[in-house]
Specification:
globular; four-stranded antiparallel sheet; 7 helices; Rossmann fold; 458 residues; Neuraminidase; 2 domains; alpha+beta
Amino acid sequence: MSAPSGAPTIASYGSWASPLSAEALAAAGINFGDLRSANGHLYWVENVPARGGEVALWSSGEGVTAQVTPNGANVRTRVHEYGGAPFIVVGDTIYYSQLSDQRLYELKHGGAPAPVTPPNYRYADCIALPGAAKSTAAMVCVREDHTDPVHVRNALVRLALPVAGPGEVLFDGSDFVSYPRLSPDGRRLAFITWNHPNMPWDGTELRVAELTVAGLKASVLVAGGATESVLEPQWAGDGTLYYVSDRSGFWNLYADRGRGAQPIWPRAAEFAAPLWQFGQSNYVLLGTKRADPMRTAISGGSAGGYTVLVALSTSDVFRAGTDRFGVSDMTALARDTHKFESRYVDSLIGPLPQAQAVYDSRSPLNHLDGFKVPVLVLQGADDPVVPPNQSQRIVDALRARHVPVAYILYPGESHGFRKPETIINSQQAELAFYGRIFGFKPADQLPPLAIEGLPPAS
């Protein structure tokens, strides 16, 4: 006898029918990665569950977003098995690693992909080497040689363009290599090496060598060793070499201007993550072609909102910031927040009143002289975790100091926005805010946003 229409069906634990199927979960499992820019376009890889998890290369630029690689291409490298950084854009040509055979394929605009390296070699983390008349003469890649499967060998190799052959070995003096990075003048190559039994978070070496027609010469150790993990070298336009090192016990950012390591912002905090995949990016250098230093913004919510306020009050890196329900007064937070987190700050900062001086020093409300750029503050009116007074007090203080500020208080919202209309409005407000500050007109029709301290939008 069936249950009456509309009546609930009784089922034992775990045996009820769910509207959320495993097939629906798999179909929605789209991931993005390896975002980079070239020739005024953004490029990234994106997996396609409907095609068996195939990874396609996409680009966006000049108002057009499209898949670049044809169906059937699978843009994945198996160097270290975890892969990463599987493609490079060189002019109008893309070189990418094909999962099925791990060869590099060449794809020209409007053409079909073709393999250009022999079998049994894998490639990752390629960079371009400039030639005459702003052309690209070659690439440097990390290569993993599987011609002898029992003795896999890793090396830095140079591949002359057009590519033909497995590449010329530049460096093979360690078990592993990563992060080949060319100096602005094209004369020096920085790279990371390490040996068994270390993993890259145990100990690595940052080396710099002269890059010549005959190969690398005069390789020198810049930083790192068996017990120091160094990651992600980047060159600035003035020849300064930046990198991340855990020599202090934490992965912090350092600079080498020819006088040894200089810490950039020493903190008992991690500014990097373990190197599982090639191409991992933990920081960006402003003032280079990678970013416009006059159009940099920082955005975050809750602890991230606190980070926004700290960054804007203690540095001049950003030109605007969006604070979503962030903490401005650490002492008030310890007093006013809900029971579950009421003693959480004790473990982060210290107990009160013994640590009052630390609370004061870490409260953005006590560093108002540092605020110089416009701030957008978004807050839920019913937030018990970071109460509205946290936002109201920083907004009032910025108003009093004539710092441009916009404030939106959302009735009925708690810690983290839930209502669709709030989510939509907060996203639109943030885009409108950046449009005003950075001088661009968003394509969408957005609700007006009043920014106190700025003249009305024309």
